[in-house]
Amino acid sequence: MTDKQENRIVFWVFLTPILFAFLMVIIIPFFIGAFYSFTNWSSTARAGATLDFVGLTNFTESFRDPSFIYSFLLTLIYTVINMLAINVTAFLLAVFVTSKLKFKNIYRVGFFIPNLIGGLILGYIWQFIFNNAIPSLGDILPGLSFLGDPGNLVLGNRSSALMALVTVGTWQYAGYIMMIYVAALESVPAELHEAARIDGASNVERVRHITIPMIAQAFTITMFLTLVQSFKQFDVNVSLTAGGPSSMFMETPLLGTELLALNIYNTAFVRNRMAMAQAQAVIFFLVLIVISLVQVSINKKKEVEM
Hints:
- The chain is mainly alpha-helical.
- 71% of the residues lie in helices and 3% in strands.
- The protein has helices at residues 3-36, 57-64, 66-97, 104-112, 119-133, 137-140, 158-186, 190-198, 203-214, 216-231, 235-240, 260-269, 274-305, and strands spanning 246-249, 252-255.
């Protein structure tokens, strides 16, 4: 047996378990779910009950469902705000920890640690902060007594609750994105900055004309990661707001901060409409694929322009 054949055997020995797990956990369930989206599948169906094919009924009903439409639009808004917040914060942190600063490695670790905390735990921690710690500031500082008013609770208002989700998402994920920016910033040749400094370029000008064009590829990666992470937000949404507070949309009462992933979950396990939830999941998947491809394509073009 030649070395090439031996290496090929070793390659497939190590790769096969991973491919098997990917097939069983991702590929097969995906196609089974896609099949169920065209049926009347329900968790309450008795054993042996026939599974009827209903065509595109679940898809058309999804687009007539006010809660699904609202969650879809809300998720788009949340994604745009969250992407901007995370990337701006992460970039500024990266610039901070790559400067001539003492203990910068300690700062890097500190900024990254929130990403290691589970989303559910993180949501409950911040729920305590918003519902208890912040209102109690009024007991310490009389000028902030208005924070204790139930009407001023952060999670009691739809707009402020959405911004609370953005705040927690940024606090959790910015440290991770920061590390990508750090790697990109440290790959920029120091000679370019030195030459620009000699020519009289300010810090802002050097960042604009040297740093940003040189790390354009990093922006493509970070924008993609934050786009997907924001669109799929579920655990923090569950533990922090549980979709609340209530709101009105198309003359229908619904949950004001129920993002798309949570809406699909509630459709399946609260409203017990499994097939419809699966159809919504397929729609979710297709929309995310299209938006991700468009985002990557736009960023790639900008890389060439820069």
